[in-house]
Structures are given as structure tokens and as C-alpha cells.
Specification:
Blueprint (H helix, E strand, L loop, with lengths): L2 E3 L8 E4 L2 E4 L4 H8 L3 E7 L6 E2 L8 E9 L7 E4 L4 E15 L2 E6 L2 E5 L5 E3 L7 E8 L11 E3 L6 H12 L5 E3 L2 H16 L6 H20 L12 H8 L1
Parallel strand pairs: 1-13, 4-5
Antiparallel strand pairs: 2-3, 4-6, 6-12, 7-11, 8-9, 8-10, 8-11, 8-12, 10-14
Length: about 240
Amino acid sequence: MTARKQPNRERRPNYHEAGKTYSADNCQPLIEAAKAGHVVLHALARAGYPGRRLGAGQLPGLCSVGCWNAGPNQKWGLPLHRNEGIEISFLASGKTPITIEGHPRLLSHDEFMITRPWQPHQIGNPHIDACKLVWLIVDVGVRRPHQAWTWPDWVVLDRADLERLTRFLRQNEQFIWPGSDEIRRCFLSIVQAVGEDSAGSSISRLAVRINELLLALLDAFQRQNIPLRKTFTSAERTVRLFL
């Protein structure tokens, strides 16, 4: 079951699991790379994430949305880190190594990756390759294991559709997915809205386009025979990861 709310997310949240506390990442290597001119960054964000600030009432629960465009010979990457929300990243061009929960992979052109809230991952090994990456991070209110996801009110998918999407996102272990023309269109339209934003002028467009993306993801998942396992959201998984 998924609920909806409009939380205040200005402080960097923490996650408590198996006696340990984790803090949300702030992407400091990306901030430094952008300041040094090594990468072109366009983003809207709140809390510690890089980019122009989102107002308190603008898309509550959206932690970060944006795009980086990195040329060859990059000397930075995002080391092992965690984010408080569901992170969906699409590679619009190029390729780059990633690691999710200790599994190294290569993210290639027109593929997207998904990390669940607080799932450890890194981008680069240790450095990123030349690539254009588009991402969004949506906080769904997870602060301890097995909590129900609470989507923000501006996510307007039908309740049944949103519950199906949540099950797909929570109950499978596939990290990288093939894109499609529709998914690529959705991500590029998000990039356009971020780039054109001036003092919140693109907030409505972003809300519409992120909802379009979530619906496109649901359609893509439903076309595939994806094995779902409830144990991925159970206490059994927490004990296994802790051990």
C-alpha cells in the first residue's frame, strides 16, 4: 500500500538499519568538478544536493533533478554513497562504470539504472567516462527498513498504477534496464524543463514530465516478465545484508 504526503525535506535525512546510521549523500565530487569546469551541470535541488535551489513549496519530496555533461579524461567520480530517495538515472550518451551493492556494471547509451532508497552505489571506477547523465531523486519517506513508500502528492498516477509501480521498484534486483524511445523522450523533456527554469517557472512542466516518466517506466515493466520477490522488502533481507 502506498500513501501520499508533502513532507519537509530541507534537512539531510538519516537512515537507521542494523544498528548503523547512514546520511544522505551531497555529491561533493560533482560539485567540485562543476566548479572547476570539468563538467557542465544543470540541476534543481534541495538540501545538500548540487544545483539551483527548489523552493520549500515546489515539488516537495523532489531531492534532485538534473543533467551532467562530461567530456573525456574525467578525474572524478561519485564514490560509494546512499540517497534517501528512489534514484532513476538515464545515460543519454556515452558510457560509464557503476557499482550497486558491490556488483560492478557498465551503464551504456540509452540505458537507465534504478537504485532504491539508501541502496549503496557508486558512479565511476573510480572516475566516470565521457557521458551525459540525466537523473532524478524522489524521497518516498524511507528512514528504516521495510517502511511503506510515501509518494509526494504531485505524483498523480492512479492509486492502483502507483502500487504496481512501487512493487516493481521494490521487489526486484535488476539494476540496469534498456531504455525506449518514450523513456528517452521523457528524460530529455525533463532536462529541457530544468534548463529553461527561472525562479520556478518550470515547476508545473517538471511535475507533468516526471509523472509521464513514471508512467512510461510502469508500461515498460509491465511488458516484461519481471520476477518479483517479497523477501526484498522483508526482515529476512535486512538480516542477510547485515550478516
